[in-house]
């Protein structure tokens, strides 16, 4: 008996298979940067609840940028826009590694600003490129394979999410978790983010188009 994720993967052509591999790595990156560990990190540096709420609001509010990015995606193509946006979001996320220096100043608000800036920049760049996701998929996946693709993607994403939660729980277990452990989680997420760029680059298609 084959697992549903594997059977769905094998039914797809090479291009959507490559996109699924990219998605798997991207999910690992995503969960380690803006997943639940982000909230725990914010509380570790004593960030007030109102700013934690701001952190959580960045993703839905920046998603509104999708309304104005489609002309950009049509002109340059989904692939080019996503590659640049994903590259910049990983670069901006690296701001979080200045956290030890911010904490060393003794001013808590500087540390809060570092995390807020890092996550806001990440979400802005993500929103800039995310509009290219579905047009690119619709280009490389035939109509009769889209149900297989999206069901396989959903199953794969959930499995990876569970695994990431378990790994993060192991990394953060204990009564007095250090800031360094949170930075290890971010290092994994950003490292996987840069790896996803290479995998995305290998996916065919994504050229400019007259319409979406």
Q: Can you put this structure into words, describing what you see?
A:
Helix content is 78%, strand content 0%. It has helices at residues 4-11, 14-34, 36-44, 49-62, 66-76, 78-93, 99-104, 108-130, 133-140, 146-171, 179-201.
The coarse silhouette is: globular
Beta fraction? under 5%
Instruction: State the share of residues found in helices, binned by percent.
Output: over 70%
Task: Please tell me the overall pLDDT.
Answer: 92
**Record field, number of beta strands:** 0
Give the low-pLDDT segments.
none
Distance, first to last CA? 40 Å
Radius of gyration, whole Å: 18 Å
The biggest sheet, with number of strands, parallel, antiparallel or mixed sense and barrel status, is:
none
N to C succession of SSEs? HHHHHHHHHHH
The assigned structural class equals mainly alpha
Count, helices = 11
Layout of SSEs?
Layout: H1 4-11, H2 14-34, H3 36-44, H4 49-62, H5 66-76, H6 78-93, H7 99-104, H8 108-130, H9 133-140, H10 146-171, H11 179-201
Helix pairs in contact: 1-10, 2-3, 2-10, 2-11, 4-8, 5-6, 6-8, 6-11
């Amino acid at each position: 008996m084959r697992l549903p994720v594997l059977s769905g993967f094998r039914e797809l052509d090479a291009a959507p298979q490559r996109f699924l591999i990219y998605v798997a790595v991207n999910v690992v990156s995503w969960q380690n940067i803006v997943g639940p560990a982000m909230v725990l990190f914010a509380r570790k540096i004593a960030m007030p609840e109102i700013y934690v709420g701001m952190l959580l609001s960045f993703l839905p509010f920046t998603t509104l940028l999708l309304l104005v990015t489609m002309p950009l995606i049509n002109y340059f193509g989904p692939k080019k826009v996503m590659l640049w946006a994903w590259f910049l979001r990983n670069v901006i996320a690296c701001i979080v590694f200045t956290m030890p220096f911010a904490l060393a100043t003794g001013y808590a608000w500087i540390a809060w600003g570092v995390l807020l800036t890092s996550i806001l920049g990440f979400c802005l760049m993500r929103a800039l490129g995310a509009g290219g996701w579905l047009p690119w998929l619709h280009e490389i996946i035939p109509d009769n394979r889209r149900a297989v693709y999206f069901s396989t993607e959903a199953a794969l994403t959930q499995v990876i999410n569970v695994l990431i939660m378990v790994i993060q729980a192991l990394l953060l277990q204990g009564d007095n978790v250090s800031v360094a452990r949170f930075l290890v989680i971010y290092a994994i997420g950003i490292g996987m983010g840069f790896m996803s760029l290479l995998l995305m680059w290998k996916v065919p298609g994504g050229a400019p188009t007259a319409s979406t």
